[in-house]
Design goal:
Elements: H1 3-12, H2 15-38, H3 48-64, H4 68-84, H5 89-114, E1 119-122, E2 128-130, H6 131-156, H7 160-166, H8 174-203, H9 211-242, H10 259-278
Antiparallel strand pairs: 1-2
Helix pairs in contact: 2-8, 3-6, 3-7, 3-10, 4-6, 5-6, 7-8
């Protein structure tokens, strides 16, 4: 079945069909991210601790820079790192700019109209876009887009467990790391459970449901998922304690710094310093 056929059926299908498609899409994206983080590429071979620090330094460089040229150069560097890390470019661009254009665009739009300055573009109904407003909105879009691109790139090229363990370099409290790790696993578990529930219900439906029936199904499924999540959380915690858990999860992975990690870290420090100095 082609993707276009699935999308057409999604628009015509009921609640169960739409929910099954959304859940399967979320699971596929998660599996894709894990595979991407473990494939052979430039960033995949860098120590997770170095990548966490590098991401923070580059985010500081982007947000301290006052030059569009410098920000554009940093974004070009992110695209180059994505290519060297074998990240699918269309997927990468869609993940970064979909968020930026929707959320940041809403915030940047008023700046085009209310920021005083020389007139740049005259629109109907007496609306004028000023040069200062256009520059402000462009700065906001580029800064946000580049920051999101940096964060997404380093996250999708790092396994989740390694990323959580690397947060210890920043002295993140153990309880925060633990909550993040459990939340990530619970999302997977609840998605699988919801998928099974809707699939079993779909196999017993012989006719199209009415709107009231769909709402009743959604409410019943939500309540069942809530009860199951509370029950499973208690069972998982008791199982963790019986296996020796004492407040912080331990992993078999050990971090080892290599020459490539030191060189990459040094290069990021130099790029950050140069970007901040040139973007003054």
């Amino acid at each position: 079945m082609s993707l276009s056929t699935v999308r057409r059926r999604r628009t015509r299908g009921g609640l169960v069909e739409r929910t099954l498609i959304d859940i399967n899409h979320a699971l596929e994206q998660s599996i894709f991210a894990e595979k991407l983080a473990r494939q052979d590429g430039l960033l995949q071979g860098i120590d997770a601790r170095v990548k966490v620090i590098a991401m923070l330094l580059l985010l500081l460089a982007v947000n301290f820079s006052r030059s569009l040229g410098v920000i554009a150069g940093l974004y070009a560097g992110a695209l180059a790192l994505a290519l060297l890390s074998r990240v699918p470019m269309w997927t990468y661009l869609k993940r970064t700019w979909a968020f930026t254009l929707v959320f940041t665009g809403i915030i940047a739009l008023p700046a085009l109209l209310i920021t005083p300055g020389p007139a740049w573009v005259h629109l109907p109904l007496g609306i004028t876009i000023t040069q200062t407003g256009g520059r402000t909105a462009l700065f906001l879009l580029f800064r946000t887009g580049t920051s999101v691109a940096m964060a997404v790139l380093f996250v999708i090229t790092t396994p989740w467990n390694s990323l959580l363990k690397a947060l210890g370099v920043l002295r993140v409290p153990d309880v925060v790391v633990l909550v993040l790790g459990i939340t990530y696993r619970y999302i997977h578990l609840l998605l699988h459970t919801a998928n099974d529930m809707f699939l079993s219900r779909r196999s017993r439906i012989l006719k199209r449901m009415t709107g009231a029936e769909e709402r009743h199904l959604a409410a019943a499924t939500t309540g069942t998922l809530l009860v199951k999540s509370l029950q499973v959380s208690s069972e998982v915690y008791l199982a963790m304690e019986s296996q020796g858990f004492r407040g912080y999860p331990r992993t078999l992975e050990t971090f080892r710094m290599r020459w490539g990690d030191w060189c990459f870290g040094l290069a990021i420090v130099l790029v950050t310093a140069a970007a901040i100095w040139l973007g003054r």
